[in-house]
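Margin note: ligand = magnesium ion.
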Amino acid sequence: MPPESHVVTISRFLVDQERRHPEATGKFTSLLSDIALAAKVIGREVNKAGLVDILGQAGDENVHGEDQQKLDVFANQVMYRALDHTGLVACMASEENETFLPIPDKFEAGDYVVIYDPLDGSSNIDVNVSIGTIFSIHRKISAGERGTLEDCLQPGSRQVAAGYVLYGSSTMLVYTTGAGVHGFTLDPSIGEFLLSHPDMRLPEPPKKVYSVNEAYYARWTRGQQRLVTHLKTEGAFGSRYIGSLVADVHRTLLQGGLFMYPGEKGKPDGKLRLMYEAAPMAMIIEQAGGRASTGAVDILDVEPESLHQRVPMYVGSRDFVDLAERMLAEGSEGWRR
Ligand code: AHM
Ligand code: MG
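Resulting structure:
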């Protein structure tokens, strides 16, 4: 190790942050450490995904005579079990479960509400493309001892933290508690997340890149069609689209640009889910100096009505999101027009 370099593990970093808040109880630090542990367990299995043809597939029995699980089901259980018994969490909700997830009566419940997408982009696993876990953390607001649906249905502006884990060429955990965005890279040889990207900011000037699934062009509103045509003709933008939200947002965070998942004719809210995809990514992008919009209003201001509701998404460099909003409004065919 070069003599001047300082290795900062995620645990050290969390404790240092906690010390800046004399009122902190340490509970939040424990919660994020538990999520980091879940990320390592999920990451370990994701890295082995290419071996299933050799070692057995989902649906096969494993050596213990148990059924092997699909990775997204496995990731869902890992997240829940990492947090259910800690006494820190009031309730949870997951993309994989229809209704919100209470804490079992045998365990103490706590103050935090954790909403997650355990393995986003899981259709990309078969082709060895990066996937991710996304999490959003709120504080319980209901009066009872245990969390309820009301605690889960809070707008993104009330998140106390948000983050994602990217299982890419390296595994990275990126999170914010509203005081900047920090990124950690897993060193698999020691099993620790090490601070690699302190205080992440979208670069200025940003890279001129738009990111959208352009195959849906014919289904877009006129405003959306004009926006993309403008970006590539007059704007001289390049284009990148992975089709895996965590990877596309991570690139946008590091290089700048505009990521879009627009609404479509007959499907005005698009595909991505507000509570565990759009809202946490919006908090991260805004904390890093960018903007996150539905095309009409800030994603963080959308009042949720249900756990799995969808919302159009325009996130990235401020000027580009502003431009998108302007052009969508001119087409007068924005979201909930
Ligand atoms: P999933 O939750 O079923 O995995 O779908 C979400 C994924 C995102 O990661 C990605 O941004 C989007 O779907 C891609 O959708 P499309 O294939 O329509 O471009
Ligand atoms: Mg998802």
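The radius of gyration is 20 Å.
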